[in-house]
Amino acid sequence: MSSLSNICEIPAFLRTMLILKYAFKIACIMVPIIIIITVIISLFKSITSGKDEDLKETFKLSVRKIIAGLVVGFLPVIIPYAISLTGEDTLYTFKECTARVTTEEIEYYEKIESITSIVETMKNNPTSDNIKKAKKAIDDAKGYLKEDNIIKYLTAVSDAEIQLDAQKKIGECEHQGGKYKNGYCLKEAKYEKPSDNNGDNSGNTGNSGENGNYTPGGSGTGTTTMNLLSGEFTVVNTKSEIKSFAGAMRRNGTYQGSNSERYGGYCLGFAYTHAWGMYTGNTSYNGENGHGYTGAGNFSTYINDDLQEVLNVVYSEITAGRPVILQVNGNKQGTSRHFVTVVGFKSQVKNAASLKATDLLIMDSWDAKLERMDQSNSRFVVTGAACHKDYSGYRIQYLKH
Question: Residue 72 and residue 23: Cα distance in Å, rounded?
Fold first, then answer.
């Protein structure tokens, strides 16, 4: 039935039907007149000829003509009856179709056809110009478009905008040497040596406050941390429990500040070790093997100028039981970068859209302590551009899956 109904929305078909409708009306008027005139002429000729045979033949012919005229006159009744024999749905569609055979309806469906063509062009090629044309066509047609059609077309525009945005992200991702997949820009994690100045902690020692220049809020380890983990924060469910893992890293000296001269540029190396160690349950790392980018090959890099997009990935990974490495400030000014491991977020956060950077709980690669990011002197996220790197956005490393 839907295919039959659809044909009744095609302007060309309706115009053909309209022509046939007018032709039929004309036939209904002209056929009886022609029959009457031809019968009268034939009878007149037969009578004047005086031949009985001609009169009889003329009478038979006249009866046939009259029957033919009656058939034409009863076609509006005969056709629906014949169609009804094929099924009620077909009869319903036929009546619906004939009801639409008006100039106004045809003009309406011609406008629909025009808008549909513009929208289809936009769907096949979702460029900014095509989206603008579709929006204008829909806006101009709101005075006569039915609500369901407006919703359908606006939905198509929304889908095209999403597709265009995705195409832009794909282009940006490929420009950065990555591969766009499932909303992420996937790039292989690279070993970043100290020569890259990764994690310039000059004047910055995390919440230990050893240099007195940078003392972010948060507790480090101990009972306060236990209180944090007991309810205020939702933490990642890894093989190593977060608090005990942080304690093991502290005891083993598996953190950057354990030997700042030797490990001064290895914050990312320790962050990899922390994230991979808690995920796999390995607490045996020390400073010597812990600064060497342990497990780095199991991570992918994601960079995006939109912080919320990055936080969406963080939320997804943490709730899936996978810690995330996050780029934060390496000095108070935020002009140098540092890397930490995100291990949780505030329990009040119930979805990715509501997650903020200040909701995060991190394990700092500088001192292997658990710290919150909602204090005035806490770590804070920074972009590559702010740190004078060759990428502009916010950056995380997450486990491949």
Answer: 12
Give, as one character, the DSSP assignment of residue 372: E
When pLDDT is cut at 50, 70 and 90, the band that residue 205 belongs to is: very low
Q: What is the pTM of this model?
A: 0.50
Exposure b/e, 227-244, CB count within 10 A at least 16 = b: ebbeeebbbbebebebbe
SS3 253: coil
Cβ–Cβ under 8 Å, residues 388 and 335: yes
* Residue 147 CB-half CA count within 13 A: 0
pLDDT tens for 255-282 read: 999 988 888 889 999 999 999 999 999 9
One-letter-per-residue 3-state SS of 55-112: HHHHHHHHHHHHHHHHHHHCHHHHHHHHHHCCCHHHHHHHHHHHHCCCHHHHHHHHHH
Angle at 331 between CA 330 and CA 333, to 5 degrees: 125
Check the CA dihedral 163-165-167-169 and report its sign: negative
Spatial distance between the Cα atoms of 292 and 369, rounded to a whole number of angstroms: 19
Name the token pair of 379: 């770590």
Q: How does strand 324-329 pair with strand 394-399?
A: antiparallel
* Cα–Cα distance measured from residue 213 to residue 204, given in angstroms and rounded to the nearest whole number: 6
Domain residue ranges of the chain, discontinuous segments joined by +: 2-101, 105-175, 180-399
Which 3 state secondary structure label does DSSP give 280?
helix
Query: Which distant-in-sequence residues (6+ apart) come within 8 Å of 324 by Cβ?
Result: 275, 313, 314, 317, 318, 341, 342, 396, 397, 398
CB neighbourhood size of 185 (10 A) = 24
**Rounded Cα gap, residues 94 and 98, in angstroms:** 6
